[in-house]
Structure formats: structure tokens, C-alpha cells
Amino acid sequence: MLVTEKLAVHSKQQPEKIITSFEGKNTSYSEFYEQAKRLAGYFQAKGYQKEDIIAVYLHNSDLFLVCYYACQLGGFSLLPVNTKLTAPEINYILTHSEAKALIYDVRFTDVLREIPDTFAKFQDTLLVGGEDTLPTIVNDESITFKETQVDQNDTTVIFYTSGTTGKPKGVMLSAGNVEAAAEIWGEAVGYESTDRIHIVTPLFHCAASHVFCIPGIYAGGTIVIEEAFSPEKALETMEKEDVTIFFGVPAMYMILLNTPKMAELKLNHLRLFAYGAAPMPFELVRKVKSLYPNVKVQNLYGQTENSPAATTLKDHHALEKVGSVGEALPHTEVRVVDEFGDSLPVGQVGEIVVKGPQVMKGYLKNEEATIQAIQNGWLYSGDLGRFDKDGLLYIVDRKKDMIIRGGENVYPVEVEEVLYEIPEVLEAAVIGVPHPVYGEVPKAYVVIKKGQSLSEEDVITFSSKRLAKYKLPAEVEIIDTLPRNASGKVLKNALRV
Questions:
Q1: CA distance 55 to 90
Q2: I need a surface site. Which of 64, 334, 341, 367 has the fewest CB within 10 A?
Q3: What is the number of alpha carbons within 13 Å of residue 68 lying toward its C-beta?
Q4: Is residue 259 exposed (0-12), middle (13-18) or buried (19+ Cβ within 10 Å)?
Q5: What is the pLDDT of residues 345-382, one digit of tens each?
């Protein structure tokens, strides 16, 4: 059953049940469903066709999820925009996707003013905040919605994720992919209609949406949303809202565990601390388990390209299988293969490949990258891993040198391209270095042109105008030359020593 069909069922069977709680505002299943239908009906009346792309540039809110379901209902493709990106980064995504409409928060107006030509091309722009247009539309009872036949293969959401070429790629997920993710995570986490799922991570990321919100609603539960992560507010909400499931990246758990209030909470309803997006240090898991022995923990591993759903490490293995990302999820096959695509024996390291109904359709307008990523139905993750004798997966390294900073993906090539724009820079290389809170952060090695001068502050100042804050090098080291092999390739392993 498609996620919109499930929503329709719930709106009839439990119309007064709360579906979202946001900043003191509760919305029932029936109200939410009607709001989503009105927004879908609005775009239908404007003449939008199936798979037309509608960009959503919003902070976390209940309206974000209304937009998500409205696009699914109308057969349109939702494009969540990362709110941490700079104007040039957003400009590329909006231009490449050819999005026809934009729903945005008034607080992002200054960013959009930096790309006036792109902003002017939209057929429709709907505002949240200030002189609201979106809330008016979703509450306009005069708007009618025409039932739309949505096929399993229709593209219903597109998440842009950075690529090793330095340019983001649009991951196309179908209605069938989203349905599969809802069912897979529903089974793996054991979602129930009594769950109250606490969301503090960005909804523009696939994890918050497809591992928690959509599966939680699929089960008939309640989503407790916060606009952004604040440790004090998160802990207060966790207790006040009778949260049953909390999800955070390891950096968030590090911050929470260093907040005195964490040890004083009365979490009588909480049943699960979920974590993912980066490895969780053993000591963090141990401390969480020590503070709340009756609350289970669960690690989640996947990529946007698989909705994201690959493996999970459940509570009974949390302290026993340190560093593992667990076993394959329901309805999912996971293998570790060599360069020829042949499965490797236990203990040997190879590339992790994933197969299942949640694997993406492909990359938007990028057939070559799609062919490289999906071979014979298997998604090649780019991650290197190994299985142990119990069938549990361990990630050993990242084939593509990706850096995960506090759950955010940072690709060195993307940062390096910006560094090469600095007139004084001759060469540049970026690697990930350990960080006590974020897990790892980017570090830049820069070679300056002869006769020129450049400081670390100069590099950061220049980059900050072109890169999101989380992509900025946390450290810049000026060196004479970059280490290279005989063919001229930069030896990043030598830089990591």
C-alpha cells in the first residue's frame, strides 16, 4: 500500500489521532490529510503534471510533511533543499533539476536574492512566514483535489547528494521505493500506532524522512518535530511529549550526554534510542545504556540511494559487536564483493553492494552515473566493508574518501574545487581528520604559488562564501608540496599519517 493510501486509511480509522506535534501545535490525521489534498489540488489547478518537480526550502515543521504528502498525492516530485547550503550550491540544484515551483521560508529570502535569475524562473513561489501563502492554501476549503493514479515507478522524491565529481547528484526515489522503505523500517524498528517519534535531525535528509517520519506515519504513530537540534530543548521535549523513539547522529548524543539534564530525565515512555549517519563510539553507546538500561539502542545504516535502508544493528548486539552496522534489513540483500562483483568470504574486505525494492530508480539526468552505481540490480555503495562469522557487517573505509561530519556528508573533491578558485593556491587536497564531537571534520592541505602569500584565515574566509558551514575546512595546513605517486595522483594516505 502506497504511503498516501495508508494516510487515507488512517485518516478514516483514527481521524482525531495526532499525526504531528510542532511547537505546541497538534494536527490530527484527518486535518493533515485534508491539508495535503488542498496543496495537491492547488498545483493541479495550476496545471502541473505528473513528476513535475516542486522544491521545498524549509526548516523542519509540520508543513514540511504536508508538502511531502501533497506531492505524493498529486503525483509530483518533491525536491527537499538542504537549508545549510550556500546560494551557489542551491542555484546548481534548482537549475539542474528544473524545478517548476518553490516553497520556501521567508528567512531564506536573502539567500534567494543572491540568485535572482533562477528565482525569477519559477512558475509558483509559496511562502512560509511573513505574508504566508502556504498556510492559507492548505487551509482553504474551497480548493478541490482530483484523485491521481500514482504508479509504483513514478518519481515522488528527489534528494540531492554530493558526488565525487564535485557536483551534487539527484537521487530519484519512486513511490515504490518510499513504500518499501516504510515497510522495511516498520518491521526492523517495530513501529506501532502508539509511538511518538522525536525528530530533531533535518527533514531534508533522507534518514529523518524515510527511516522515521514516513514509516512512523505508515504505522499510524505521531511525529514530534523540532525545527532544529538544541540539546536543552530536545531533552525538555523528550520528557514533556512522552517520546517513545529518539533519533540522533553520534555528535548529538555526545552533546546530550554532556548536558547535566540528560541524567535527570524521567523517560517513562521512551523505548528506543536510534542512531546512524556515522559510527557511534563504544563509550557513547555504553554510557547511553548505562543511563537508561531499559531503553534499547539501534544503529541504522543506509544511503540516500537505497532510501536509506541497508542494515541495522539491534540492541542485543550493541555492546557485543562494537563497530558493526549489523545485519541486512528485511527484504534486503547485502553482499561484500571484489572488483569483479563476486562475493568475498567472511573477513575479507570488499565493496558493499545492496539489493532490494528500496534501491533508487537512478540519478536525475545522469545516466552514466546511474549505470556505474546500479549493476545487475545491485547498488554499489562505494563503502568498503567485511562480514564476520555471524553475518554482521562492518564498514572498514569509504571508497570515495567521503567525510562524515556529524552526520553530514562532505566530499573532498567538492571542497577542493573551491580551494582551487583561490588565486594564490597552486594545489589543494582535503581529508577527514578525527574530531571529538563531530566524528571527523575536513582538513585542507594547501600549496601556495611561488611569490604569493596566504593565511589559514584567508582560505576559510574565501571558502565560507561558497561552501556550507559544515563543509568548511576545520583546519588548513600550508605545505610545500603534496605527496604524489608515480602517475601523479595525490597520496591522501600519506597526508593522514
A1: 11
A2: 367
A3: 28
A4: middle
A5: 999 999 999 999 999 999 999 999 999 999 999 999 99
- The CATH number for 3-386, chosen from 3.30.390.50, 3.90.180.10, 3.40.50.12780, 3.30.420.40, is 3.40.50.12780
E strand spans, 190-343: 196-199, 222-225, 245-248, 272-276, 296-301, 311-313, 324-328, 333-337
Q: DSSP code of 345?
A: P
**What is the sign, positive or negative, of the torsion defined by CA atoms of 375, 405, 432, 323?**
negative
Confidence (pTM) = 0.89
CATH number belonging to domain 403-496? 3.30.300.30
Domain boundaries in the chain? Answer: 3-386, 403-496
Instruction: Write the pLDDT tens digit of every residue in 416-433.
Output: 889 989 999 988 999 999
Residue 163 has pLDDT above 60, yes or no: no
Rg of the chain, C-alpha, whole Å: 23
Q: How far is CA 107 from CA 96, 166, 200, 226, 356, in A?
A: 24, 28, 19, 17, 39
pLDDT band at 494 (very low <50, low <70, confident <90, very high): confident
Per-residue exposure over 303-339, b if at least 16 CB sit within 10 Å of its own CB, e if not: bbbbbbbbbbbbeebbeebeebbbbbbeebebbbbee
User: What are φ and ψ of residue 263, in 5° steps?
Assistant: -75, -10
How far apart are the C-alpha atoms of 276 and 62, rounded to whole Å? 23
The rounded distance, in Å, linking the Cα atoms of 212 and 474 is 31
Cα torsion angle, 427, 429, 435, 439, sign: positive
Count CA atoms within 13 Å of residue 481 on its CB side.
5
> SS3 for 289?
helix
Indicate the DSSP class of residue 188: I
| Chain center to CA of 17 | 27
**Exposure letters 157-175 (e unless 16+ CB within 10 A, then b):** bbbbbbbbeebbbbbbbbb
> What cell was used for 378?
545491485
pLDDT digits (tens, 9 = 90+) for 305-324: 999 999 999 999 999 998 89
All three cell numbers of 246, joined, read 529518539
Query: Hey, what's the torsion of the CAs at 17, 314, 203, 226, to 10 degrees?
Result: 60
